[in-house]
Specification:
508 residues; alpha/beta; TIM Barrel; Malate Synthase G, Chain: A, Domain 4; 2 domains
Length: 508
Amino acid sequence: MSGPHPALAATLLTPEARAFLDGLHRRFAGRVAALLAERGERQARFDAGELPDLLPETRDVRETEWTVAPVPEVLLDRRVEITGPAEPKMIVNALNSGARVFMADFEDSLAPAWAAVLLGHEALGEAVRGTLRVETPSKLYTLRRERAHLFVRPRGLHLVEGHYAVDDTPIPAALFDFGLHTFHNAIASVERGAGPWFYIPKLQSHREARLWAEVFAHAEATLGLARGTIRATVLIETLPAAFEMDEILWELRHWSAGLNCGRWDYIFSAIKTLRAHADRVFPDRGQLQMSAGFLDAYTRRLVWTCHRRGAHAMGGMAAQVPGKSPEVNGSIFATIQSDKQLEQLKGFDGTWVAHPGLVDIAAASFPSPNQLGRVPGPPPGREALLARPEGSRSLQGLRRNANIAVRYLAHWLDGQGCVALDGLMEDAATAEICRAQLWQWQRHGAHLDDGTVVTEWLVASAIAEAGRVDHPRAAEAAALLLPLATGPVLAEWLTVPAYNQLCPEVSQ
C-alpha cells in the first residue's frame, strides 16, 4: 500500500484485512481483466454496425420460470432510498434522513483520493456499529436509534485502487471497496440484524454478474457466513445490460436484492455503445425524459423482469436540491411528485433521492411497502429498447454540456465528487453524458436547430469558454475535457484520466 495517511491505512489494512484483499485479488483480478477485454471486443462489434440484442444462448433463462431467493424481511420496504458519497457527515445525515435505505457511494459521487477512500471505510465501520459522530465548530452529528439500512456501492470493475497493489499489480477498486467493507463489517452487520448489502454498478453482461456471484460466495465461505448473507442490487445502467436483465438476476439469484434504473449512466451508455452509428445522434440532454422512447421501454422491461422473478425494481434519482425560496421549492416538489408518481404507476417498488428534504415528497407517491405482486406486461422488446431518440439540438445545449462538464470536473479534481450545480446534485454520470454528447455531435457533424453544423472547433470553443468559470481548477478541467470531447475515439471513461490527475502519486 502507498500514499499519505499511513496511520489510518494501518488501522484499516491490518494483516488480516490485507490477507482477505490479497485473496480476492489473486482469485478474481485476472477474471476482471478478461471481462474488461470482452467489453472491448463487444464494443468493436457495435462500432462495426452491430446493435445489441437478446442472447440466443441464454433463451432458456429468459423463458423458464424461476425466482430469486426471497430478500430478508427488513428489506421488503424500500420505498425511498437516499444516496451520496461515503463521507462521514453525509453518512450520518443520510442514515438519519427517514429514508428506508442509504447507499454509501464510493463510485460516481466520490472523488477517490486515498484519504477520501480510507475515511469513507472508517466511517462505515462506525456507522454499522452505531458509533459514528461528526463534530463541527457549530454542530455535533450523531446517529439516531432508528435509521436507514446501509448499502454500499463499490467502484466499477473498470477502475483500480492505485494505492494498494498485490504482486505489484493495483487491485481492482471494486474488489478493494467490497473486500474492505465486507471484512470489517459483515459479521457486525449480521449481529445487528442487517447484512453486508451492496449496489453493484456499471455491469455490462451476465458474465460480469457471475463474477460477482463467485466473489460473494468466496467471501461468505472465507468469513463463515451462510450463503445469501450478502445481498446486492444491480444497477442496470448500461445499454448491453438492459438486454440481459433475466440473466443477471439468474446469476445472482442467491444474493439478489433486485435491479435499479441507473438512468443517467444509462443515457451515457446508450450514447457510448452506439457511438459509431450516425443515425443515433441524441438530442439536447434536457429533452431526454423518462416518459417516452427507449428510456420508457427500459424502465418498463426492468419492472416486468424483476417482478416476474420476485425481485425488487428500484426507480431512478431525483437530483433536485431544495432551496430557501418557497416558490422555487414548490416547482421542485411538483416535478418530483410527477416523476415519482409515474414510477409508482409503472410498478416500481421504490425510488432514489439525493437530498434529505425530498424523502417525504418521494415517499408520498409509494403508499405500499412494495409492488412485488404486480407484473405489468407485456415487456418491451428489442425494437423499443433501441428506439431512436427524438428531439433537437441547440447551441445553448452544447454550451451547457461544456459548462456542466468543466464545472463538475473542476470540483472533482478538487476532491468533491458530489456537486450541486444549477439546483441539481450532480455526480460523474452527468459529466459523462455531457462530454459524450459533445463528442457525438462533432463526430457526426450534427445540425443544431439554427442550421449550424457542430464541428470540433465549435466544441473546443465552448470548452474554452467554460474553462473561464470562477473556479481555481477550471482551466485544468477544460484541458482534461478537451481530448475526451474531441478525440478520434470516444474514451470509455472520464474518471480514468481524471484519477491520474487527482492522485498523481499513482497512475491507472
